[in-house]
Write a structure and sequence with these properties.
The chain is of the alpha/beta class. It has a single domain, classed as Alpha/Beta hydrolase fold, catalytic domain (Rossmann fold), CATH 3.40.50. It has 12 helices and 8 strands. The chain has an 8-stranded mixed beta sheet, with helices on both faces. Helix 3 packs across helix 4 and helix 5 runs antiparallel to helix 9. The radius of gyration is 18 Å and the shape is globular.
Amino acid sequence: MTDRSLPPAALAPRELDDTSDDRARITLPKGLFLDLPGRGSTFVRHIVGPPNAPTVLLLHGWTATADLNWFTSYEMLSERYSVLALDHHGHGRGLRNGEPFRLADCADDAVAVLDAFDVEQAIVVGYSMGGPITQLLWRRHPGRTRGLVLCATAATFNTTSREKALFTAVGSIAAAARITPKPLRELTGLRILTGRADRDLRQWAYSEIARHDWLRIIQAGREIGRFDSRRWIRSLDVPASTIVTTADEIILPRRQLALAGMLPDVEIFEVHGPHSSCISEASHFTASLCAALTSVEARTS
């Protein structure tokens, strides 16, 4: 992997065909709207990696989008992998099919994306809400996962009073205010992006979340609160890595470590940062993600 630093944090990423200025922005990979038969249309980022490269499927967190969650990671991943990253139902440019948000449906959507690109198996990476979706993808679609990387996530989320407030009570606030309430901002990297004085990056972040279907976001929060894989995740039959965000104020490190302790074949990596470490600690997070993927690959051969 090439040793390179990220572009200045003040700058928003640019689309591949955007030549409006020559500042040192991250260039986003090719994006397209993809029709999933019987499901609807969703937005997907697609990177063709080196010949015979494994495919990595990136699943983002609650109230984020694929780009908000992964824009700092795309370039380094592209050196070794083919990459697919989609916006989940109701998030960003994700599915708008009129159906309620269900984590299980998101897992099925992700497999439909793999099918569309003729990918039989992928290493699936899930961040925060993407963790439950990743776990469900493995359970619902045997043979489609080569391995898992679970980042800043858990096997269950709703056992303390604070978590119940985050995953259920915020729904009514969002519905009434039509804005991103503080607990939702804290649950994603948006607090890092929108809290900066850097107008360029902040405006881009707001443009991403402006696309959300807030009813589906509310439903997603409730779904996360109901999720519990503790009865079945111990039977995981593919190698896994976990990335534990050690200063996480949303999904406590002990809960992340509890998930790792349930996995039969796992290596643990740490990022010393908050829940939004994919943004706030971008260089460290991306290096840890590459190491976690390398570890999974080594245990699949």
